[in-house]
Amino acid sequence: MRAMNPLRRFVNKIREINKQYAKPRIKLSRRTSFALLALRLYLIILVILLAYKFFTIL
Amino acid sequence: MRRGTSRGFSRTKLLPQLYYLYRRFRKQLAIFAVILGPGIIVMVADNDAGGITTYMVTGSEFRYSFVWVLLLLFPVAYTCQEMCVRLGAITKRGFAEAIFDAFGSFWGWFSLADLTITDALTIVTEFIGMTAAMSIFGIAPWMTEIIVIAFIMAIVINGRYWTWEKIVLVLCVVNLIYIPAAFLVHPNLSKIFWTGVVPGFPYGLTSPVVFLLMANVGTTIAPWMIFFHQSSVIDKGLRAKDIAYERADTALGAFFTVVTASVLVIVAGTLLYGMKVQSAAMASRLLMPINSYVGTLVAVGLFDAGLLGAIAISMTSAWAFGEIFGWSHSLNAKKGQSKGFTLFRLLILTFAASIVLIPGAPLVTITLFVQVIAVTLLPAALMFLILLLNQEELMGKYKNSRAQNAIAGTIITVIIILSTLYGLGTVFPGIFG
């Protein structure tokens, strides 16, 4: 087997993981979709607030 | 079937029946003794160096008035961790792997990256606590760190989960050292009951009260606890039939956590009330001239809390990475089989220890930052947990009932709101007036 450098091996492993878990297996009911959407919005707002704080400190 | 003869407690059969009950109880106790571990470890380790600081500050500022809040945290901690037990025992998958599998790689990578950053920074705070505690006894920080890392790596060297667990359980028992400290300070029990156990806000609902309320509740469930508990249930090999015992283990752990937290508030409230306490190490130093025994017990307890935290949290990230990258990630793995798992733990511990040794490192900022980063992961982890527990094809008859969803949903909503407000209050100190 051709020896690969560690970085390439790592990238390949990440690709393999992404492929393996490409599709969510959970049953996406309305409630689940809403919960995930709310989570995305929550995280976006939180990141905006943290970024604001970071830039006002600088 | 005739009543009172074959099944009932007839006089002639009373003794054999009592003997049977006694034998059954002994058998169940023996099984419980074998199974207990993950629940106690995760709960006691939750009272880590950061937690000890929160309780000491709470007691020194508001005496006993938060004890009832801490007692209420028992069902909160138990409800969240009980779900991890069921998820682990039924799916035989760690929480990281469960997120990847159920919600896809986006949420998987988000959780894994956030967990790793939170864990690394939390371990920094554990080392801050441990080095500060040992410096009270004249031990240099670098020496404390070397001994701690060597110890944490050594306790897994024989490749058996059982050995590791027994050693960590001994450290959990040491964590109860605060209880004799409470007896030594001779607190006024009547005052504790009327001003602490009976719910109320004798100091009003001012912004410092609200902030400490959020700190106490918000730190009850940390993201690493969910990942750790599930992975340890799997590594121990617990199955569906063990869930009842593991629930009892979790309840016992939650009881110890609440008792330890309350005792610390009582100790600080009795001896340090009115003093400006900023950390647990500072509290220990302040206690030394007042009562050297209590000061020593608090310092030893702080070191133990930091050590337990570092052991559990470093294990959490290593387990999570092992699950996703396919490394051998069991404490039962033979020597040489789990190089990635071992190396990862060594790296995260060395990184955290090095940060503490850097002269002028922003340790206070790091401590505050931990709360903020945890806030980004905790709501996601709790939401994933409850969504997974509602998947019938995954959980079968062990999925959440309506009542469980109502209780867990309410608790999780409160935790998310309070921990978010706490995180925001840390970043924007003037936000609550």
Attribute tags:
heterodimer; A: 58 residues; mainly alpha; 2 helices; flat; B: 433 residues; Amino acid/polyamine transporter I; 0% strand; globular; disordered N terminus
CATH architectural category of chain B: Up-down Bundle
How confident overall, as mean pLDDT of chain A? 83
Write down the domain tally of chain B.
1
The name of the CATH topology of chain B is: Amino acid/polyamine transporter I
SS element count, helices of chain A: 2
Question: What does this entry look like structurally?
Answer:
The complex is a heterodimer of chains A (58) and B (433). Chain A is built from 2 helices and no strands. By secondary structure, chain A is mostly helical. Helix content of chain A is 74%, strand content 0%. Chain A has a domain at 29-58. Chain A has helices spanning 6-20, 30-57. Chain B has 433 residues and is an all-alpha fold. Chain B has a single domain (49-427), classed as Amino acid/polyamine transporter I (Up-down Bundle), CATH 1.20.1740. Chain B has 19 helices and no strands. Chain B has helices at 14-35, 38-46, 49-62, 67-91, 95-103, 105-136, 141-154, 161-174, 178-184, 189-197, 207-218, 223-236, 243-271, 280-290, 292-325, 339-357, 363-388, 392-395, 402-427. In chain B, helix 2 (38-46) packs parallel to helix 13 (243-271) and helix 8 runs antiparallel to helix 15. Chain B is globular. Chain B starts with 13 loop residues before the first helix and ends in a 6-residue tail after the last helix. The model of chain B is unreliable at 1-5 (pLDDT under 50). The A-B interface holds A 13, 17-18, 20-27, 32, 35-36, 39, 42-43, 46-47, 49-50, 53 and B 100-105, 107-108, 324-325, 372, 375-376, 379-380, 383, 387-388, 391, 393, 420, 423-424, 427-428.
